[in-house]
Amino acid sequence: MRLDKFLKVSRIIKRRTVAKEVADKGRIQVNGQMAKSSTSVKVGDSIKILFGNKTLEIKVLQLKDSTKKEDAEKMYEIISETREEGFEKLD
Asked: What family, per the record (predicted)?
């Protein structure tokens, strides 16, 4: 399955066009390698996504062509989720 489609179906990113933009800007890695939106994703793959100040790392558990909202979270397991802290305001 294509990376952009997986991200949409699993509801990690709401729209496939947004998933494509994020991948094409070099903000997604699959198994430690920079990934394009067309990169093939398999069960067991590790995906790391940089969202602005948040980094999400997941493991692919299932591949489905479509899914209900309740079942979307069963497609992946969150390995880590980190948030970069902003700068503190100086007085």
From this structure: Belongs to the RqcP family.
| 18 within 8 A of 24, measured Cβ to Cβ | no
Residue that is written with structure tokens 């489905």 in the block: 64
pLDDT tens sequence across 9-56: 999 999 999 999 999 899 999 999 999 999 999 999 999 999 888 999
Distance between CA atoms of 3 and 19, rounded to whole angstroms?
8
* pTM, 2 dp: 0.84
- β-sheet with 54-60: strand ranges across: 33-34, 28-30, 46-51, 54-60, 76-83
Taking the CA atoms of the chain, what radius of gyration do you get in angstroms?
Answer: 14
